[in-house]
UniProtKB/TrEMBL annotation:
Its cofactor is FAD. Belongs to the FAD-dependent urate hydroxylase family. This is FAD-dependent urate hydroxylase. Residues 4-342 form the FAD-binding domain. Transmembrane segments: none annotated. One of its GO terms (biological process) is purine nucleobase metabolic process. The keyword Oxidoreductase applies. It comes from Vasconcelosia minhoensis LEGE 07310. It catalyses: urate + NADH + O2 + H(+) = 5-hydroxyisourate + NAD(+) + H2O. The keyword Zinc does not apply. Its EC number is 1.14.13.113. It is an enzyme of class 1 (oxidoreductase). Pathway: Purine metabolism; urate degradation.
């Protein structure tokens, strides 16, 4: 379809990727966000090859390669410091045809803003409702302004307002069962090799370091805790030192080296797979449509896949906007439901939902040569729209 106007609510990773894809498709694009300053949630993201392929198709391959980390190996280590398995990730690259690029979320968002035009994002625009008729759709903002287009895209995150319009009801998020602390530290060999993703495991907890651009590690700590456990930045270091007492020296060094003021603490939630992603001229994508636990590293990648599939659905049908958005929904609903379910299953195994399963996983890692892990990652990547 030609000459569409697309209104996008939300200027995070999914919204910006969608804006770039829609504009490259030849559509007029307006993008809005409720915040007064764009700051990404979280410190880093493991951008696997399916997400990178979307960026390649959007002519951003060179840019993502420049800000991405060089991740050549993957290593699991016991809490006492014994290597359980260590292997090259090169077979994944050979199988799927593209390197992964772990990246700082700030760098990724800036790259997308540069590609779209940061001055073209309309801030201080909190969407409170959506309306539509046979000919147009409107995003309505808190201050009374309205943005009218042929399509309204809800890229407004896990607490999405537009999701409620699409479904006709609100959706409660589900606590997955663990808390994640994450941030960035300078890369250093006393923490981990600079080209390896290193994960320490034990006691149903994890401590991880992954190389990102700028000679830094993206780190995270996972601890199963009851929902609503109180915490504040001033005590992060002491809390982590307690949770990871007796763990190997690099974990202790990381805890001492992190900056609590720049460390994020997140209670991890997901949502049940949704019955619909579109209603008439309105559609949702990214965390609005399939908020998932980060245990497969696929949240951002799925939002990028959404952007590509939606823009192509609009380009390749002449039966109208509603038809195109239903085709987008049909292409994405089961794919993203599968990611939600598998991320939840992996989270349960990793974080001791069934303690015997977690102990068995630790034992299996001692005999793992990387094949099983890489096969699972490759299968997830290759189910995407760009092979």
């Amino acid at each position: 379809m030609d000459n569409l106007k697309v209104v996008i609510v939300g200027a995070g990773m999914g919204g910006l990727t969608t804006a770039i894809a829609m504009r490259q498709a030849g559509y007029e694009v307006e993008i809005y966000d409720r915040v007064s300053e764009l700051r990404p949630a979280g410190a880093g993201i493991s951008l696997w090859s399916n997400g990178v392929k979307v960026l390649n198709r959007l002519k951003l391959g060179k840019e993502i390669a420049e800000i991405g980390g060089q991740m050549d190996r993957m290593t699991y280590v016991s809490k006492s410091g014994e290597t359980l398995t260590d292997f090259s990730l090169h077979p994944i690259v050979e199988t799927v045809g593209q390197r992964p690029y772990p990246v700082s979320r700030t760098d990724l968002q800036q790259m997308l803003l540069d590609a779209y035009g940061a001055d073209q994002v309309q801030l201080n625009s909190k969407c409170v409702a959506v309306e539509q008729d046979a000919d147009s759709a409107n995003a309505i903002f808190e201050d009374g302004r309205r943005a009218t287009g042929d399509v309204v895209v809800g890229a407004d995150g896990t607490h999405s307002i537009i999701r409620s319009h699409v479904l006709g009801q609100s959706v409660e998020r589900r606590y997955v069962g663990y808390v994640n602390w994450n941030g960035l530290v300078p890369a250093s060999p006393d923490l981990a090799p600079k080209n390896s993703w290193v994960i320490y495991v034990g006691d149903h907890q994890r401590a991880s370091m992954m190389p990102v651009g700028g000679d830094r590690f993206y780190f995270f700590f996972d601890v199963p805790l009851p929902k609503g456990t109180e915490s504040q930045a001033e005590t992060y270091r002491e809390e982590l030192a307690g949770f990871f007492k007796g763990w190997a020296d690099p974990v202790q060094t990381l805890i001492q080296r992190l900056d609590p003021a720049k460390t994020n603490r997140v209670e991890i939630h997901d949502i049940e797979p949704l019955p619909a992603f579109a209603r008439g001229r309105v559609a949702i994508l990214g965390d609005a449509s399939h908020s998932t636990a980060p245990d497969l590293g696929q949240g951002g990648c799925q939002a990028m896949e959404d952007a590509w599939v939606m823009s192509n659905a609009l380009l390749t049908t002449n039966l109208g906007v509603a038809d195109a958005l239903k085709r987008y929904e049909a292409a994405r609903k089961e794919r993203t439901a599968d990611v939600i379910r598998k991320a939840r299953e992996r989270s349960n195994m990793t974080h001791g939902k069934e303690p015997q399963e977690t102990q068995q996983w630790y034992k299996e890692l001692e005999h793992e040569d990387g094949t099983t892990i890489m096969d699972a990652i490759s299968r997830t990547i290759l189910k995407g729209p760009l092979r």
